[in-house]
Amino acid sequence: MEPSENRELETRVTPGGSDLPGRLKVVAPGVPSGETRIAVLSTSPYLAGALGEEMGPHRVGAANYRLTSGGFYTDGTAQIAANQLTTVQVGLFAVDLKNAPPTLGLRNYASAAAPNPRIYRSAGDSQAIATTSDGTYYWGVVPGSYYLEYGMIDGVPIDVAASETKRFKGWEYAGRRVAKIIAPVRELPTASCAQGGGSLAVPKYSLTAYHPSLGSRYDYLSLADGETVEVGAAAKHASQGYTLTITGVSGSFSLPLGATGAGPQAFPIGRLDVDDVRVTQADGSVKIVRGTYAAYLKTGVDSSGNEVFAYSNSLNCTPDTNTGVDLIRGRYKVVVAYPTVEQGTKYSNIVVDVE
Q: Positions of the region Disordered (predicted)?
């Protein structure tokens, strides 16, 4: 039978195409100190690998990856080309905190108000690092700008470029305004009303600073004789500063910071030590008598050139003699009260420069 002229002819098509995904490799200029892994987050399921390892296949276009090194993670993006291996360079950095001078937030001056330093990837996204970090532990990081925050309002930026190995000194002064508080040498025991409390036989210094994100922050320092601590303000807190209060002393004082990047400005605390009173008796002998004292800060001079002293005692108490108090440096009138048989309480006025 002949085929019908109305029969439809069969058409068969064999399509051709391509599937040419790319691959990703992340490399660093050296070997990080801790375990380092790569996770490519733009695939499902995620691709996982190590530094220097090819990972794929991956679709053409943006590849979002996370580099986790020593528990610290940073995120990056690479552009994947078809049928090619895309290699991205990351950096290494270390932070030296252990070798810093005594600094609030570093060394042994971490507290609830000034906790261990934190490295910020972005606002609100940070990770703490130990103050024992000595610059020998290297993290692998995606190139970018980070921020090391410590103390109350202190910190410095950290910029890491591709293929860069950077050892960062956490206490460098660039961009920071810094004061160095220096405790005095104390010859007599500190008056009980001026001690830090509990077993602390030295005064306690209270620092207050305002952090734009965290609000008012408070911290306390207890410095031994001649001990020092540096207190700084980061460049991004250029309008902020510190107030200082000394246990047993009335009022608070603005802590002067050095010029930006110029290093610490010394701020020595003064000391007033008051001996017991040497009272001369009628027969010429000297009797040692226990008294009390107050200190009045010089505020200026009058029209006749006479020194003018504050009306109020600079101390929060009238300590017994044979003790001392830490004071802001300046000129003071010290009024010592002591008992006598002659007329009860007598007073001795002594003008001294407290240094």
A: 1-21
